[in-house]
Amino acid sequence: MDLNTVTEVVRRPYDRPGAHWRDGDAWLAGGTWLFSVPQPDLRRLVDLTALGWDALTVTDAGLEIGATCTIAELYAFAPHCDSNAASLITTSCEAFLSSFKVWHSATVGGNICLSLPAGPMITLAVALDATYTLWAADGSHRTVAAADFVTGDHRNVLGPGEILRSVDVPAAALRRRHTHRRFTLTRLGRSTLFTVGTQTPGTDDLTLTVTAGTTRPIRLMFDSMPDATTLRRSLDALPDDVWFDDPNGAPDHRRHLARHFAEEIRAELAGTGPPSERHVHSIGSNERFRSFDGGAGS
To answer: What are the pLDDT digits (tens) for 183-204?
Structure first.
């Protein structure tokens, strides 16, 4: 889509471009959403890809994902990621409702900052206990937990001129066992609910991450494996207004799915349920796709 109100595109921004932020600016990375809808308030685009940030950096501390890393780059990295999280990275990339062309443009940071309930990079980051490094317009920076970044549908904690610089995933989170459930109305449709369960190796703890069906990411954490009743009560205690309502699912439907999938995840990670053979539940195809790792990581 032509953005006919934009009068300038900054192709060579400063290393810390936030200091030059002004009303009417927008950060440009992949631009897959920016150019898909009218943006009548925009006057200038600042191209972050020109800054040359590293896409992916593996250290002893974990994995750093540059905000301008494309979905295609992250997807290509997953098979070479020597950790239990590799299949979750693959699953999250495949949850995009987009073509391979979009994968080569859309960025991890763009999906997170758009802050839509169905953003799969949000699901991935929250499930893996990631933190975000944010650059402020005054030259300072801060670190925000991924679970606290998105505050509602299309809303987050970013201030004017603030930039998401990187997503940092701790090494311990990359080693966790995990399993997931995702529901769509059609085989390749947008997520109605995306739920991930993780567990620290050698323990019986449980962290349940619920997204897509909620206006913001929800995390339920248990030091030891809860029973079915305790887990259901924790979900039922969530406020009514946290459940998202759109053509992909009503709040009651999403709450029902969360209860059902949470119990499947609990049973699987507790070793009392069958290993995962479902990747996506879909009304349209009624297919169950086998997970790449055959279930929870070991």
So the answer is: 999 877 789 999 999 999 999 9
